Request: fold
Amino acid sequence: MPELPEVETICRSLDKCVSGKTILNTEVLYQPLIKKTTPDDFTHTCKNKTIIGVKRIGKAICISLSGNYTIIVQLKMTGKFYLPENKQETTKHTRLLFTLSEEILLAFDDIRKFACVYLDTNKKISNLHYLQTLGVDPLTSDYTLEVITKALKRFSKKNIKSFLLDQHIVCGIGNIYASEILFHAKIDPKRTAGSLNQKEAKAIFKYIPKILKEAIKHKGTTFSDYRDVDGNKGNYLHKLSVYQRENQKCIDCLSEIENIKIGGRSSFFCPKCQK
DNA sequence: CCGTTCCTGGAT
DNA sequence: ATCCAGGAACGG
Reply:
């Protein structure tokens, strides 16, 4: 579900409401949610730790704790944080429940059970494979045209849609924004990474952070499940140019938007604007 | 490097 | 009843 803009929105509101609070109690309601360690160890480690802050790397949520620990959360398709008033208000699919100081409850809901929660250290080098192998985050200063140009060359046989979705190259882009970025860059999603000329590479480089930042301004995109911590939907839905607009008219040329499968995923594009 | 797979619920 | 879903690890 959530891609970089949604995760960023979640982190900002989480940071506001849980930073400075202490974790008094942790209940793991679905044991397989916790990876690489036991639920008991997770619960024990979290106990009496203070939440220092919440930030994002790619689509991963990093909740840093006192004592040099970080809770890493991958929301995957349906993971969601929310703040129930009391335990009676928790949802059917709540998998994790923190009781914080000042009587705040922080709950984590995940219908499809794909989400992953890890304990990591606060060290600069993570001990998690997912973070170790993550590509450049497009909203950091490490993101440069050279990085993109080199990656396009290295993964020249990969199609550009799968290239954008590959978290080991650039992290944070999911299926919605991949289609949107390619529309704005006017590139056909079926093209290979290696077939892009310099001008097209520059367009990809430019529109990745541009679209993501624009979506953050609108607090992300909601189709069905996605909500931020306070239960709000994202408003970027109304700004989408191609995603989920199959058979509708292109906003630029009025041709019909098509939906094809690339790498098993829906890919929306305008056959006239995107070459 | 591509297809498959984990899991549940909503749409058709 | 069947298909589809915004993610990412895995195996062939």
Residues 1-3, 6, 59, 74-78, 112, 114-116, 129-130, 165, 167, 174-177, 221, 223-226, 243, 265-266 of chain A lie near DNA strand C (CB under 10 Å from a C1'). Chain A has a mean pLDDT of 95. The radius of gyration of chain A is 20 Å. The beta strands of chain A are 23-28, 51-57, 60-65, 69-74, 79-82, 94-100, 104-110, 116-121, 258-262, 265-269.
